């Protein structure tokens, strides 16, 4: 399949679900009607670093690349809009269309339009997704910098499932295993992100590198200490609290709220309160026997 | 240098020149104030495919990656805004900061803000740039689909210089050679693009793959025939007309205009008229002895 045939096939596989596209495929750039604020993130996944072709179907790789980028939009509380996708295809990779179809499957779930892209050849499979979300006013969005002493710290969902799924996948399990499915096809918490932002979250971040790393980012950007009780961390089945806070790729959200907004926060999304914010700096993880040190998530290298 | 130190150094190297940024570095996504229309393109360059580390300085690679993406914004007639940059860094590549500095040098010339990015490790150097431009109304922008029978076909600048420079670079010339400089640091024709759009261009495209390929895209999208006279093609010094229409990476613009807009078009940008549009389909290249077949630019593989 030549480049032009592939691009034509890709374009056929895509749907415009935004209602905002003025120009789409076939021009030098896509044109979309904007809302007042554009919220944009870009993320790259590399074969052998962020996924393994040996254990991931092409469609799972496409799904994950879009999920990773959309999770950043979720963490801001923005409404997802358009995705722009670049793929480096090695000669021995025969399923570029399946890759796009996997991405489109998630796009369909999330109301996202894949509005542009680039396909080039190269020695290793690389996917880059730039995604734009939209908002109408800065107050609708939540950064990492607003956590205040006295705030509660909450997380959505269960943690550690993706990393446990990754290990099981390497051991031969498949997508029928619920944890493996969580690893292969993470779901960005877009609805929860918007609802938590609307409920008054003071800071928010997605748990892509593991709570032990990501909660520290919130602490540093907000100039506060986040104290997280390990025995309150919601763990995926069969996962210890230590594994839950160090495992990455969960794409759940961590958010902070003033005590007075506890109820609206709980109504907004399935939250578990795992700790509190106080004056100071950094992340304090507390176990049954006191502070636990030496735990960190992973920085994608 | 660790990832966090590198990101901190990169952030220090960047300037906000948009006046539109609401949130920049340090959050999950960048937030910018939008104008009514967002014009977005994404482009990827891979070492060994689109450039050679052996002959390109890191700063040249960064420059070229941004130039490639901005050229698409130029071809739409949009005003450039923000760039989002992803870099896959192999272990043996020691100059990531120089790469960003080269990109920032072009961003500074063009009034562009590098507003976000991702840095990951991988086996080969890959740069992806997603760039957003802005416009206020669809009529300000030009696609590939509006060329009409009777229109004139014009190109900016001189063609074939980048490909000639690439060959000279491989033979040992350096950036003091003007053609080599053109290859290493192409300049996207952003001002010309906007001026040509304002002057009433009916179709426009950037010459990234060579006129013999890109003019065909305009013909196909517009449903017309573009006839280009080889002896009217403006050639870079020492370059034949055949080389000028097949060499890529010039990043000049091709635009079509109704005959009645000849003068405004010439006032808008340094244009050379190279042919005409007629009913029919495809690209007709005409030499001294009649139609010339078998010439094509390159599709980036």
Question: What's the topology here?
Answer:
Two copies of one chain form a homodimer.
Chain A: H1 3-13, E1 21-23, E2 30-33, E3 37-46, H2 58-76, E4 79-89, H3 96-110, E5 113-121, E6 126-135, E7 152-156, H4 161-170, H5 178-184, H6 190-198, E8 203-206, H7 211-222, E9 225-229, H8 241-246, E10 253-257, H9 262-268, E11 271-278, E12 282-287, E13 290-292
Parallel strand pairs in A: 4-5, 9-12
Antiparallel strand pairs in A: 1-2, 3-6, 4-6, 7-10, 7-11, 8-10, 9-11, 12-13
Helix pairs in contact in A: 1-3, 2-3, 2-6, 4-5
Radius of gyration of chain A: 20 Å
pLDDT < 50 stretches of chain A? none
Summarize model confidence as the mean pLDDT of chain A.
95
Give the overall silhouette of chain A.
globular
Counted by DSSP, the helix tally of chain A is 9
How is the largest sheet of chain A built, in terms of strand order?
8-10-7-11-9-12-13
Q: Largest chain interface and its two residue counts?
A: A-B, 69 and 69 residues
Oligomer: homodimer
Classify the helix fraction of chain A into a percent range.
25-40%
Number of strands of chain A: 13
- Sheet bearing the most strands of chain A, described? 7 strands, mixed
Helix-strand sequence of chain A: HEEEHEHEEEHHHEHEHEHEEE
What class would the helix/strand composition of chain A place it in? alpha+beta
Proportion of β residues of chain A? 25-35%
Distance between the termini of chain A: 33 Å
